[in-house]
Design brief:
Layout: H1 2-6, H2 18-28, H3 38-52, H4 55-71, H5 76-88, H6 92-105, H7 110-124, H8 129-142, H9 147-160, H10 163-175, H11 183-195, E1 201-206, H12 208-214, E2 219-226, E3 231-238, E4 245-249, E5 264-272, E6 282-286, E7 290-291, E8 297-302
Parallel strand pairs: 1-8
Antiparallel strand pairs: 1-4, 2-3, 2-5, 5-6, 5-7
Length: 308
């Protein structure tokens, strides 16, 4: 137990692809922008090197930490230290498991959010899109005036090609009266608005009964999948965002394969207490096979709920 106390995990801060952040800025923002700096990345790298010198001690301490959190599942610090330990060993799946346990106990710690985001992006940035979006939203909420958080978020959105949410984040920056250096963000939003538009959209019209039902759920997922049961697009809304008309566009596509929507799809509506896809989600609606062939936009009417 004495060795555990010697590891100063509190000073560890994981860099979330700052190199890609600079790439993002060079493409979307002007070259003379001072939004990002490599100095922070270098500092993080130095801290990583020092911690990796203690790699054997970290390996030895993992069974102790596992025992502690098994005895006390509410041991937030234990879960965080386990997550960091596995992360330094490049065991990102175990790291994500530990960080998820910590996140369920506390979702407003920037360092925890940084690290959890880092490992999920290492595992699969696109497949983990829904939970990563939630984590980035939580990170920004811890300090809505912190441009570093916004830049990391924008970097990720650029990586997954989420134009719609990129526009939303840029708008939030421009509308924040406490952020003064906005010119590059303003130009970025203008460029996006001028050069991007929805190429295909599906509009889901909900009856009043369906709206009333869905508004009682914490999180509602509208999922499009192909006839091969492969998820094509996912859009999550909270209860207060449910309206009589919901749009799913190419900006909600999870993996861009060149063709936005296949010729035939199914619509599923699922509800959950969690903000991300999980095995306990409840299916409340599933459509018949819908043909999209030779159509630019489509409307689907959902008149009732199917209880499972």
């Amino acid at each position: 137990m004495g060795e555990v106390a010697k590891i100063d995990f509190n000073n560890l801060k994981i860099g979330l692809s700052l190199t890609f952040l600079l790439l993002f800025i060079s493409i979307i923002f002007i070259k003379d922008s001072d939004i990002a700096s490599m100095d922070e990345y270098k500092k993080i790298s130095v801290r990583h090197e020092k911690i990796r010198d203690n790699i054997q001690m970290i390996k030895n301490n993992i069974p102790i930490l596992e025992s502690q959190v098994a005895t006390d599942p509410n041991n937030l610090k234990g879960h965080v230290m386990l997550g960091k330990s596995y992360m330094l060993l490049n065991d990102y799946l175990e790291s994500a498991r530990s960080f998820n346990n910590a996140y369920n106990l506390s979702n407003n710690d920037p360092d925890l959010l940084y690290d959890y985001i880092f490992v999920l992006r290492k595992i699969d940035a696109k497949k983990n899109k829904i939970i990563l979006i939630t984590l980035f939203d939580d990170l920004v909420s811890t300090d809505i005036n912190n441009l570093e958080y916004y830049n990391l978020y924008l970097n990720y959105l650029f990586e997954i090609n989420d134009v719609e949410r990129t526009k939303k984040v840029l708008t939030n920056i421009l509308e924040n009266p406490n952020i003064t250096k906005k010119e590059s963000y303003k130009r970025a939003l203008l460029d996006l608005n001028n050069n991007t538009k929805d190429r295909q959209m599906i509009r889901i019209n909900l009856s009043n009964d369906v709206v009333d039902y869905l508004q009682k759920s914490e999180n509602i997922f509208f999922i499009l999948r192909s006839d091969e049961s492969t998820p094509i697009a996912v859009k999550r809304l909270s209860s207060n965002e449910i309206a009589s008309s919901i749009s799913i566009s190419d900006n909600n596509v999870m993996i861009n394969s060149g063709k936005i929507f296949p010729d035939k799809i199914f619509l599923l509506i699922k509800t959950s207490k969690e903000k991300f896809v999980n095995k306990d989600m409840k299916t409340v609606y599933e459509s018949d096979l819908i043909s999209l062939k030779d159509k630019k936009s489509n409307e689907i009417f959902v008149g009732d709920i199917i209880f499972n």
